[in-house]
Amino acid sequence: MNFFANPWLREIALHLWQATVFGLAIALVVALLPLPARLRYFAGCLGLLRFLVPAGFLAPLIRLMPWACTGGLWKASGLGTLWMPVFAVPGSAVQSPSAMPVLSLPAFMTVVWCAGTILILAIGLTRLARGLRAVRRQQTPFSRSDRERLATLANRVGVPPNRVTGWFVPPNSWLGVIGIFRSRIVVPEGLFSTLDEKEVESVLLHELVHVKRHDNLLRLFQAAVVALFWFHPLVWWLDKRLRWESESACDEAVLRLTGANRVYATGLFKAVRYALELDLPGVSGMSRIGLQSRIHAVLNHQDRKDSPVKLAITVSTLIGFFGFATLLASTPAAPGGSASPADQQTALANDNAQSKTASADNATADQPSGRILDISELDQIPVVQKQAAPVYPSAYLKTGAQATVIVGFVLDEHGIVGASEVVSSTNHGFDQASMDAVRQWTFSPGLKAGKPVKVRMSVPIVFTISEDKPAK
């Protein structure tokens, strides 16, 4: 069977392909461009977000951008007519009582996908619950002097002192931030005694920057995307890279506050050696990921003030790239290069449509109402307003017949379907149902020089069979 013959599988595969291409572009930006760490982190978050945003969610926005995609959900093939996306019409096959129910491929893939997601979530939540329980059992509050120092540093970073508290945990334990809205900084007992005053301040400043950036909330977002797309290696790579960029962004923020490169590098190295890595979903903790690169970057950091204009331009460019790529992906490509039989059929039928419509165009060129334009001649192509679904012929349900019918039609100046014909059909028993449905469709008219005109269009309609269980 053709994997992409099923509309559900085709849409999922298309979304994953588009998100992967965008994610790879973001990965190149993060890995190669010399941007500040916080901007690389922002770009990586956009890459993960693209996996959660199907292009179809933003498709209606294309109607507001006629200069970009010329009018809507349809796209010109460049061959003189307008091919709209395949309109799939599912029918239900009637099974005999003795037939054993068979789990369809989409259902099987859905089960595997959901099972993997549930398993990843269960593992993550179990680890998080155990980690938080261990911290609560063994934690003791900061001393008064340590609390005062933490409050002073919180004010320096811009975090309200009442939003964060400090706690000691057993020696050689975790160092990090727990909590989302009210944060707790956990520090192994004895760590402060191995650091001098400046090093202690730099370590606490690092954790306070995590609080200010809401990194724990962002870590939960990362964990959710990883759980949902557990099978995609790019998602895992982006998640790991974002954790590293999060630490680098905090390093840069601390250096902007203190300017003490060597002091911070020494404190960072001692803290990593003394504390265990706090690797829990939704928790920002001491990490050894890329430690050598981080210390090298800290030692070579140059204190330079970032231009607000430069930052605004970079952020706007990244957001614009995200929006443009998603809107562009929401415009289906013209048929001819797809792997599905329906798409191959529409591509083969295109030449026949050209030859059949050429004489009709010449015959109507001198009519008072004006000639019929090709889609490439329009300033704004039609946008569908009403779309009646074709009815699957009941006579073919028992036999399980399937068909692809390409209906060509002329859209008048009022957006009403006029003259129509079957351009190509793999089963003529489905022709009438296709024609009856298309005649009920209405569009906004195509525009040329601001005036509505006639335009020739065509649409592939695929009649498929879905297996249903017999009623008891």
Describe the structure.
This protein is of the alpha+beta class. The protein folds into 3 domains: 1-53 and 304-331, no CATH class; 71-102 and 335-467, TolA/TonB C-terminal domain (2-Layer Sandwich); 110-302, no CATH class. 49% of the residues lie in helices and 15% in strands. The strands form 4 sheets. Strands 1, 2, 9, 10 and 14 form a 5-stranded mixed sheet that branches. Helix 4 (105-138) runs antiparallel to helix 8, helix 7 (197-213) packs across helix 10 and helix 10 runs antiparallel to helix 11. The chain is elongated, with a radius of gyration of 30 Å.
List keywords for this structure.
15% strand, elongated, 472 residues, TolA/TonB C-terminal domain, 14 strands, alpha+beta, five-stranded mixed β-sheet, 14 helices
What is the topology?
Layout: H1 7-32, H2 37-52, H3 66-69, E1 82-83, E2 87-93, H4 105-138, E3 140-141, H5 144-157, E4 164-169, E5 176-178, E6 183-188, H6 191-194, H7 197-213, H8 215-228, H9 233-258, H10 261-274, E7 284-285, H11 291-299, H12 308-329, H13 341-364, E8 383-386, E9 403-411, E10 417-425, H14 431-438, E11 442-444, E12 446-448, E13 451-453, E14 455-467
Parallel strand pairs: 1-14, 2-14, 4-6
Antiparallel strand pairs: 3-4, 5-6, 5-7, 8-11, 9-10, 9-14, 12-13
Helix pairs in contact: 1-2, 2-9, 2-12, 4-8, 5-7, 7-9, 7-10, 8-9, 10-11
